[in-house]
Request: fold
Amino acid sequence: MDLIKAIIMGIVQGVAEFLPISSSGHLAIFKQLLNIETDTGIMFDIMLHFGTLVAIFIVFFKDIRQLIIGGFSIIGRFFYNIYAFIFRHGKGYKKIIANEYDRFVMLIIVSTIPTGIIGVLIKDYVEKASENLLIVGICLIITAVLLKIADKTREGKITAADATYKKAGLIGIAQGIATMPGISRSGTTITACLRCGFTKDFAVRYSFIMSIPAVLGAVVLDIPDLIESGSDTSLLFNYTIGTIVSGIVGYICIVFMIKLIKKKNFSFFTIYCAAVGVIAIAGHFIR
Reply:
């Protein structure tokens, strides 16, 4: 892969990962209509995902730092309570979920479980669906409808302090369904958060931060394939530049989405997804 292509792939990754246009849907259309091979190698795919993960960590550094601290605190209090049960006859228990960030951690975990289950169950179907422009087009139109719903939904008042685990589970189900090619992950989860009554700020924070376990899981699953297939280290410089570009573009897109969700105006993306969906459906019958 030459440097120009690596940069282009980095831009595509950074844009499609965070804007509500469905990266998987566009990839499927790109391959089917233009008959272009887009497989750039497992190593590059992992590095591109790493770039966008870095962007999330930079934008939400304070939240993620507190979530990591909260996660270890929960584990620590859990084992302390086991100690208190065994050696102190149940005296001196500590509350495991002690603050808002502790609850945020548990909400993310609850959301991740149904996402993972659905992702595994429909993995084969998703791969087949990505080869069918009719399905991709319908899913893009579904994304347009979801974005329209988000525009029409009033802002709620729920934050991490009072969000229920039931709502977290529903949002996790929404994220799992969004693995279908053409259904935007960010658009779907933000819409689900708003429909669950979350504040705009918490909706966008929750949507992007809950993507971290999903992206990390995908990267981890790709590592065995990377080891098996090997990697072309001669292209490492180009890969690195592409990764940096994906991180920079991803950062810009996240900041843009934060501003967009405050205005709650997805009109452009609604029209865009609907138009591309219609084109994909037409392409299915024309080909």
Q: What stands out?
A: The two ends are 29 Å apart (CA to CA). The mean pLDDT is 87. Residues 53 and 212 are 7 Å apart (CA to CA).
